[in-house]
Prior knowledge:
single chain, alpha+beta, 3 helices, 7 strands, 38% strand
Amino acid sequence: MTEWYIEQVFATRTWKLRKEIFSSEGKLGEVMLDGDFDATHFAAYDGNDVVGVLSLICSADSYAIDFFAVAPHARLRGIGTALLHYARLFVRTFKGRYLLVDAPHEQQYFWEKNGFVAGKQNGAMRSYSLSLANDLIP
């Protein structure tokens, strides 16, 4: 049985984990997006603790994934894949056609396992895209 659950949340609910993962020594402002309050956010909870976050930024018919993270102690439990599944359902519900992400090259297996196609590489980062036109998610 899964001990955690996912729900759509306000941006502020994602900031603590974002800071811990992406800027532990920095300032909170470093993990706040300009469009945070216009974006869509999902959080995975273990009890009252946020253990995973994923933010979506909409641009026309595409949605970009930003600040996608799972707490180190909660990894390898399917939380990241579940967050991605929720994001795909959300984008499909709102007639989005593409899901895009820039991620470290070493995460290529995760993204390709989830149907994304690798694109351009820029340093340590690589672009990935997923066309939802024929998405067969149940």
